[in-house]
Amino acid sequence: MPEAMLIETTPFARNKPIAVPGLVVAYRDGVTVASIAAYREKAVALSDLIEATYGVALPAPGRRVSSNAITLQWSGPGQWLAIAERGQRGGAVRDLEAELKPIVAGLAAVVDQSDARGIVAISGTRALNVLAKGVPIDLHERAFATGDVANTHASHIAITIARLDDTPTFELTMYRSYATSFTDWLRSATAEFVHTQPR
Amino acid sequence: MRLACPCCGERSLDEFTFLGDASVTRPDPSADDAAGAFHAYAYLRRNAAGPSDELWFHNTGCHAWLVVTRDTRTHEILGVRLAQDVALARTGNRKDVRETSA
Question: What is the CATH number of the domain that holds B73?
């Protein structure tokens, strides 16, 4: 009998690239992700400890912060998502759940989400035009500045969206099983832009 | 209709799910009149024509339960509070409830 093989694949691996002038769609693979949920009345102590360890405190509701070592993204009341590159220089592999658990013991629950989330960055001059077709919140910089985070939906698919810069670049985090549905929507939302240049 | 979530700000209705009347509280099942109290808890509603407290869930947002005070005649939203804060104010600081923010 042939030996059963599990082949690691990424959330967006089955989706063909989306090539649209004025838009860059970059699927973010090779990341380690962990959710952090503060225990009752421990959020302040937790934030202080995170800051002492990584140089950045837990962000306020609706905000995201990054240092060289880690990105911390608000994801709900008393909850955050920690994101970092899995592969490190020298070939080491980083696992945020294993890394964070001993640090925040007694203050927060930490659960690995690396294989539970699909992350995609959408940037370019047409990013706002495309996202406006499915995301119901105002993403213009006057309402959604760099470092802002919101839990909302894209065409009824629950997402956490963050503005990374003023290109603009948006990073969307979704449940992994919705990655294909999301890409199907993104493909139809970008279809009208495929054969024209941005003004 | 738009709801101003205390966590997320003003959002459209399609991010929320309606549960029902927020003015009722679950009775003590070990009380002598538990059967009657549960009947009232499950079925009896004021059905007010005017301001009424309702439970809403921010299901594609912060996943918080909210108590929304809505005028049933005009759909005017008179207030939105975290259901956790409402419950804490009602019962005192219970040990099984976690704090809402950093």
Answer: 3.30.2270.10
Query: Mean pLDDT, to the nearest integer, of A170-174?
Result: 98
Taken in order of first residue, the domains within chain A and their CATH numbers are 24-28+116-191 (3.30.1360.120), 31-112 (3.30.70.1520)
Query: Got the DSSP string for chain A?
Result: -PPP------TTTTSPP--BTTBEEEEE-SEEEEEEEEPTT-HHHHHHHHHHHHS-PPPPTTBEEE-SS-EEEEEETTEEEEEEESB-GGG-B--HHHHHHHHSTTTEEEEE-TTTEEEEEEESTTHHHHHTTT--S--STTTS-TTBEEEEEETTEEEEEEEEETTTEEEEEEEGGGHHHHHHHHHHHHGGGTTS---
Residue B17: list chain A partners with CB under 8 A. Answer: none
Interface residue B80 vs chain A (CB under 8 A) = no
Contact residues on chain B for A136, CB-CB shorter than 8 A: 11-12, 14-15
CB contact under 8 A, A152 and B60: yes
Are the beta carbons of A40 and B99 separated by less than 8 Å? yes
What residues make up the domain containing B10? 1-24+46-102
Does B12 reach chain A within 8 Å, measured CB to CB? yes
Q: Find the mean pLDDT for residues A8-14.
A: 87
Q: Pick B102's closest partner by Cβ from A39, A58, A151.
A: A58
Query: What pLDDT shows up at residue B72?
Result: 94
Query: What tens digit of pLDDT does each residue of A45-94 get?
Result: 999 999 999 999 999 999 999 999 999 999 999 999 999 999 887 888 99
